[in-house]
Amino acid sequence: MITRFVLRALDGKIVVAIGILLAIALLVPALNLLVPLESAFHVPTYAVSLLGKYLCYALLALALDLVWGYCGILSLGHGAFFALGGYAMGMYLMRQIGSRGVYGDPVLPDFMVFLNWRELPWFWYGFDMFPFAMLMVLVVPGLLAFLFGWFAFRSRVNGVYLSIITQAMTYALMLAFFRNDMGFGGNNGLTDYKEILGFPVQAAGTRNVLFAMSAMMLALCLLLASGIVRSKFGKVLVGVRDAESRVRFLGFRVENIKLFTFVVSAMMAGIAGALFVPQVGIINPGEFAPANSIEVVVWTAVGGRGTLIGPIIGAVLVNAGKSYFTGAFPEFWLYALGGLFIAVTLFLPKGIVGTIQQGWSGRKAMKAAEDAEKGRDADVLPQAAE
């Protein structure tokens, strides 16, 4: 069954994309660790972390494309699932600090000592163990998505109303996590990490491993998403997106279909957040900001929703542009982002990859029509000669 799922997922474009990601996972660390500093081919350590951050954003955009591009659910709250996965990883990293913190408390993180907490809150238990923390990276975003989707989809909330509710969800979480009494570091968040699995977080080797893990996890999630959308279930997903009432009339439980896809997408976003935190070095409530979730929509639209590969390309291109513009023209970045979204909506409604695919399909159809016309002409000429 698993073999059939994998083989169905591996069409030509997906194979090429996964191959590129796996090659990047090996090439970039090699150029950082093995190539001399003075060489033009050397990749600095800071660039490795920056590229790793782009890959985490690409995974987040892929997660959104699964629900928006194939199920028609425009979520403006996927930043919440990303941030929850990041907080789960951040809590593990904070527990690894131990007595090396500023206040030297072997159990309580520094911010809790500063705020006069007497004991560790119950929801921090278990985060000193890596397997438990990784389980929470999946469970917490998945559980929130399940509870939210259970009520929203069974109430048949659709369209812009669902988008507004998802945005309200992430905004409410942002306000909650800003509170110091929540036990998550307040507005300062969680930072000053020392090590992960016994390895220094700031070491070049650790950063290269984290980069490689980001690339490989993106490849794995791309394979998973491709397997889902290319299955019979994926055909029903597209049907829900294009004609929900007809799918419902045929006897499918549309709310269950939406719920499954929403939960899987949320878990993928949580994985992206967990990989993001050790590479960036901090997680704070700002990651819940609604503007962050809207940016993910922009990445997906620019690359091409409903293509899987497009959102990955869009996330990398837009964030690379953001890194440049915020350094060279920081006051114009938001205008550039808004202008980009408007331009894509007007001139590339299917995004970069979607437009290329449409042009390629149109060219093939035109060539087929020309060949058919030539074939008819070839048949007519002998008959006319007779």
Automatic annotation (TrEMBL):
<feature type="transmembrane region" description="Helical">
    <location>
        <begin position="67"/>
        <end position="89"/>
    </location>
</feature>
<dbReference type="InterPro" id="IPR043428">
    <property type="entry name" value="LivM-like"/>
</dbReference>
<dbReference type="Pfam" id="PF02653">
    <property type="entry name" value="BPD_transp_2"/>
</dbReference>
<keyword id="KW-1003">Cell membrane</keyword>
<feature type="transmembrane region" description="Helical">
    <location>
        <begin position="209"/>
        <end position="229"/>
    </location>
</feature>
<feature type="transmembrane region" description="Helical">
    <location>
        <begin position="12"/>
        <end position="35"/>
    </location>
</feature>
<feature type="transmembrane region" description="Helical">
    <location>
        <begin position="41"/>
        <end position="60"/>
    </location>
</feature>
<feature type="transmembrane region" description="Helical">
    <location>
        <begin position="297"/>
        <end position="320"/>
    </location>
</feature>
<feature type="transmembrane region" description="Helical">
    <location>
        <begin position="160"/>
        <end position="178"/>
    </location>
</feature>
<keyword id="KW-1133">Transmembrane helix</keyword>
<dbReference type="InterPro" id="IPR017778">
    <property type="entry name" value="ABC_transptr_urea_perm_UrtC"/>
</dbReference>
<keyword id="KW-0812">Transmembrane</keyword>
<feature type="transmembrane region" description="Helical">
    <location>
        <begin position="257"/>
        <end position="277"/>
    </location>
</feature>
<keyword id="KW-0472">Membrane</keyword>
<protein>
    <submittedName>
        <fullName>Urea ABC transporter permease subunit UrtC</fullName>
    </submittedName>
</protein>
<dbReference type="InterPro" id="IPR001851">
    <property type="entry name" value="ABC_transp_permease"/>
</dbReference>
<feature type="transmembrane region" description="Helical">
    <location>
        <begin position="332"/>
        <end position="349"/>
    </location>
</feature>
<feature type="transmembrane region" description="Helical">
    <location>
        <begin position="129"/>
        <end position="153"/>
    </location>
</feature>
